[in-house]
Hints:
By secondary structure, this protein is mainly alpha-helical. It is 54% helix and 0% strand. α2 crosses α3. The protein starts with 9 loop residues before the first helix and ends in a 17-residue tail after the last helix. The relative contact order is 0.16.
Amino acid sequence: xxxxxxxxxxxxxxxxxxxxxxxxxxxxxxxxxxxxxxxxxxxxxxxxxxxxxxxxxxxxxxxxxxxxxx
Length: 70
């Protein structure tokens, strides 16, 4: 089954860009690597890299920012 491509408005892109910047800045401030963050969130390192670099197609891999392990 093929998924339809999702269209994002500029506001969503801007919000995700802020998420990317904040994620990377907070990770670096805490002194942890992408690998360490991935382990804490139970995802692979490549997922964290994508969160920091790419505008995603929405999947179930978006982190729960209320997770106390962050």
